[in-house]
Amino acid sequence: MQAQLLMIVHHKNLVSLVGYCDEDDNKALVYEYMANGNLRQHLSDGNQNILSWIERLQISVDAAHGLEYLHNGCRPPIVHRDLKTSNILLTENMQAKIADFGLSRAFSTEFASHISTCPAGTPGYLDPEFHSSGVINKKSDVYSFGIVLLELVCGQPVITRGEECIHIIEWINPLIERGDIRRIIDPRLQGEFNINAAWKVVEIAMSCVLPIGIKRPDMSRVLSELKECLDLEMGSKETQTTENQIFANSFEITPLAR
Fold first, then answer.
1. Which region is the signal sequence (predicted)?
2. Proportion of the chain in helix, strand, coil states, percent, rounded to 5
3. Has residue 246 been placed in a domain?
4. What average pLDDT does range 106-111 have in this prediction?
5. Is 82 part of the annotated catalytic residue set?
6. Is residue 181 a contact partner of residue 198, using CB atoms and an 8 Å limit?
């Protein structure tokens, strides 16, 4: 029943479920092929093709579109329950689509919550409220999306493992307090980003990961603000291109009149 429901959910930023197997002990979901793998692979240290800042903003907008559709475009609403960078897949053209609805739940009303006694989601992405309440709802997905945004911005894994494990929120908080945006942004970008857009994305991400779920924004608002960030960055690039062109034209050699 759950797989049948997911097969009728269609959006350009959701990986299409094309079939499933439910035969005795053999259970599987079959999704469309995604040529560029998952977002986690592209953010890993071993990846040589570094995602540009604009690509990261576009991926965040794409993923927000998909999640916003699940929350507000589906009737009943669908909560993903396991959103993470490895569940955001990329097409040949680097369009992002949300995948893996194996844990998803459709709620009968928009404000309903699902109470579960077994963990849902992945450590590091899991809503901290779940541990105290056992409740999974749309704001739980918003928390997970905020963690994904932080990974996109910082290029850091959600949990850094060393002598002690450090969660990405613990890592970024002191840098935010110091206003050190250049230490926050993935150093592999080599400063190629608009500072105002970068700060705005960080602010959006931190609003998503607030410890109290009711204070987190709805995905409609998150999507709207991320679009503003992308527009700001695109506008900055266009201005820079125009200025460079004017500068280049000023050095063009004009033939002497005869």
1. none
2. 50, 15, 40
3. no
4. 52
5. yes
6. yes
pLDDT at residue 172 is higher than 90: yes
Q: Which of 24-28, 37-41, 75-79, 194-198 has the lowest mean pLDDT?
A: 24-28
Q: What is the CATH number for 116?
A: 1.10.510.10
- How many Cβ atoms are within 10 Å of 11's Cβ, its own excluded? 17
Q: Is 242 inside a domain boundary?
A: no
Among 26, 32, 25, 24, which Cα is nearest to 7's?
32
pLDDT category of residue 136 using cuts at 50, 70 and 90: confident
Task: Give the span between the Cα atoms of 83 and 140, in whole angstroms.
Answer: 9
What is the dihedral angle through the alpha carbons of 21, 27, 31, 35, rounded to the nearest 10 degrees? Answer: -130
> What is the domain count for the chain?
1
**Beta 114-115 vs 135-136: how paired, if at all?**
antiparallel
Asked if residue 134 is part of any domain, the answer here is yes
**pLDDT of 160 above 70:** yes
Q: Please pick, among 82, 100, 141, 186, the residue that the annotation labels catalytic.
A: 82
What mean pLDDT do residues 125-131 have? 92
- In Å, how far are 43, 119, 151 from 160, measured between CA atoms? 14, 22, 12
Question: How sure is the predictor about 163, in pLDDT bands with cuts at 50, 70 and 90?
Answer: confident
78-79 and 105-106 as β-strands: parallel, antiparallel, unpaired?
antiparallel
The range of the structural domain enclosing residue 214 comes to 2-236
